[in-house]
């Protein structure tokens, strides 16, 4: 039986879909059978980041409304044959999702996949609640600014109150991914540091992804940057994927543009 990992943030524009795509590819490349689901009804973009937008015929709403079966809607990744994608509807309203139908779909997918990765929409409305309801684990993506961290803190509270695990007296395992960090701005006091973010959110860190212009290029070409060999951000995503699987991996020293490795002791456990 697979596990459900929700990638979320509350705030839009922090790199949630980019994170989902790169971790899904990274986990598939580590031998996991992965399905990535876009829950951003009406505003999907995970398909473009994965380079699969032209292969969409059916979407997640079509499956839940019985217009097709699950096999017809699932799209196999072009390069990683153990990665599949289920797109969001581009034409439906975000309130169309039904909690019981979502649950039935996720439970079915857990029988066939090691990891069911959900790309949560921005905001904290119905689509967001559907994406966090069945989460076993949550990866909260935050950029190192006060607004993003504040929204991430609110999302953590909602997960702890409204997930199915919470309703059963259990806890969703949660980790922080700090995205788009710029060391020079941190040193100048113009951006929150890693320690600042973790102090506010009081959760363990699972990854730090540096700001990288190549990510924009990779998104535009539909080739997740995690597949690139010589890239600090690609290495960061690959390391997060390994940590998700339980490996103890040193954190990248993003203070150096050369990207040599150093250990951030006591932050990741």
Automatic annotation (TrEMBL):
Identify the residues that the record assigns to the CobQ/CobB/MinD/ParA nucleotide binding domain, covering every copy. 5-225
Its Gene Ontology cellular component terms are: cytoplasmic side of plasma membrane; cytosol
Where does this protein hold ATP? 11-18
Q: Name one GO biological process term.
A: division septum assembly
Q: Does the keyword Cell cycle apply?
A: yes
**SUPFAM superfamilies for this protein:** P-loop containing nucleoside triphosphate hydrolases (SSF52540)
Which keywords describe this protein according to UniProt? ATP-binding, Cell cycle, Cell division, Nucleotide-binding, Septation
What superkingdom does the record give?
Answer: Bacteria
Keyword Cell cycle on entry: yes
Q: What terms describe the molecular function in GO for this protein?
A: ATP binding; ATP hydrolysis activity
**What's the subunit arrangement here?**
Interacts with MinC and FtsZ.
The function of this protein is: ATPase required for the correct placement of the division site. Cell division inhibitors MinC and MinD act in concert to form an inhibitor capable of blocking formation of the polar Z ring septums. Rapidly oscillates between the poles of the cell to destabilize FtsZ filaments that have formed before they mature into polar Z rings.
Task: Read off the NCBIfam families from this record.
Answer: minD_bact
**Family according to the record:** Belongs to the ParA family. MinD subfamily.
Name of the molecule in the record: Septum site-determining protein MinD
**Record organism:** Sulfurospirillum barnesii (strain ATCC 700032 / DSM 10660 / SES-3)
Give the classification, highest ranks.
Bacteria, Pseudomonadati, Campylobacterota, Epsilonproteobacteria, Campylobacterales
């Amino acid at each position: 039986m697979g596990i459900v990992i929700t990638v979320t943030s509350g705030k839009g524009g922090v790199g949630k879909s980019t994170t989902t795509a790169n971790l899904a590819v990274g986990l598939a490349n580590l031998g996991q059978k992965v399905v990535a689901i876009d829950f951003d009804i009406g505003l999907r973009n995970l398909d473009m980041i994965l380079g699969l937008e032209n292969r969409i015929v059916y979407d997640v709403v079509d499956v839940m409304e019985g217009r097709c079966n699950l096999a017809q809607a699932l799209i196999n990744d072009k390069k990683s044959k153990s990665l599949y994608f289920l797109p969001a509807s581009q034409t439906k309203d975000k309130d169309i999702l039904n909690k019981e139908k979502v649950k039935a779909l996720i439970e079915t997918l857990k029988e066939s996949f090691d990891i069911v990765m959900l790309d949560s929409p921005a905001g904290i409305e119905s689509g967001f609640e559907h994406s966090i309801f069945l989460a076993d684990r949550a990866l909260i993506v935050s950029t190192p600014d006060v607004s993003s961290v504040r929204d991430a803190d609110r999302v953590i509270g909602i997960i702890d109150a409204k997930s199915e695990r919470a309703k059963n007296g259990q806890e969703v395992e949660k980790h922080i991914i700090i995205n788009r960090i710029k060391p020079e701005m941190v040193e100048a006091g113009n951006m929150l540091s890693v320690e600042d973010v973790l102090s506010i959110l009081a959760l363990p860190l699972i990854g730090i992804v540096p700001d990288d212009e190549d990510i924009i290029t990779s998104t535009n070409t539909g080739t997740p940057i995690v597949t690139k060999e010589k890239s600090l951000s690609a290495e960061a995503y690959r390391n997060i994927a390994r940590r998700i699987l339980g490996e103890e991996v040193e954190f990248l020293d993003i203070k150096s543009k050369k990207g040599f490795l150093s250990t951030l002791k006591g932050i990741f456990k």
